[in-house]
């Protein structure tokens, strides 16, 4: 079995570009780092580094090994945290996977409720835009979104809980000519500069793209990002318009405003998926109740 500590050293040497740099960051002697690398090379049967003048270059095998080891090291880090939690009496844990706007708008309330139910519990939240393949552990509650007119999403072995349906709103400068309209027709956005906040074409991005196609056009993007906060900043700078869900509208700059859309209207459904965990049934029930409560009270606040 490979020594995980040596994998940490391998990754440090690759990141630093030298044995001495890695030794400094790890607070080890360079000779100790070199010895660990030799042992790791012998254990794996791989050539990990090649000399390049006075320095060394990582081989493709070393780079691949370092990349693949990130999962094992993350698992070990999580296991160490679990042991620490157990030592300190924090045995309960509940994990969430959700998109960023839910984490910002809803999870403070949910975590507050969970802390009142189980003060010693640890809450883990993975942002799906950052970890599309899943977080460090399988989520107890997986929050996703889907188009209102799409076939309901189902996950094998999970229970489905609809939390809310919400509109997506046009976000634009308050002085923009379209801000004079009570409702903006989608077709009026055909020639507008667009700012995309879902560059990886997630569910919300696909909902917006389909609404544009229904209206008969393809958005003319001037910027594409993977963060709605950054998209709002670009809109506030007058660089274009964007379309955002209700729960992402909190804290808009004063020079921006919002308008509903029509022909078609644009919306999404937010759904939570849970698996049966007898040991965490109490926490899951409390979290779902809190999610329903906060979803039912979501409204725009500048």
UniProtKB/TrEMBL annotation:
<keyword id="KW-0238">DNA-binding</keyword>
<dbReference type="Pfam" id="PF03466">
    <property type="entry name" value="LysR_substrate"/>
</dbReference>
<dbReference type="Pfam" id="PF00126">
    <property type="entry name" value="HTH_1"/>
</dbReference>
<dbReference type="GO" id="GO:0032993">
    <property type="term" value="C:protein-DNA complex"/>
</dbReference>
<dbReference type="InterPro" id="IPR000847">
    <property type="entry name" value="LysR_HTH_N"/>
</dbReference>
<dbReference type="InterPro" id="IPR036388">
    <property type="entry name" value="WH-like_DNA-bd_sf"/>
</dbReference>
<feature type="domain" description="HTH lysR-type">
    <location>
        <begin position="2"/>
        <end position="59"/>
    </location>
</feature>
<keyword id="KW-0805">Transcription regulation</keyword>
<dbReference type="InterPro" id="IPR036390">
    <property type="entry name" value="WH_DNA-bd_sf"/>
</dbReference>
<dbReference type="GO" id="GO:0003700">
    <property type="term" value="F:DNA-binding transcription factor activity"/>
</dbReference>
<comment type="similarity">
    <text>Belongs to the LysR transcriptional regulatory family.</text>
</comment>
<protein>
    <submittedName>
        <fullName>LysR family transcriptional regulator</fullName>
    </submittedName>
</protein>
<dbReference type="GO" id="GO:0003677">
    <property type="term" value="F:DNA binding"/>
</dbReference>
<keyword id="KW-0804">Transcription</keyword>
<dbReference type="InterPro" id="IPR005119">
    <property type="entry name" value="LysR_subst-bd"/>
</dbReference>
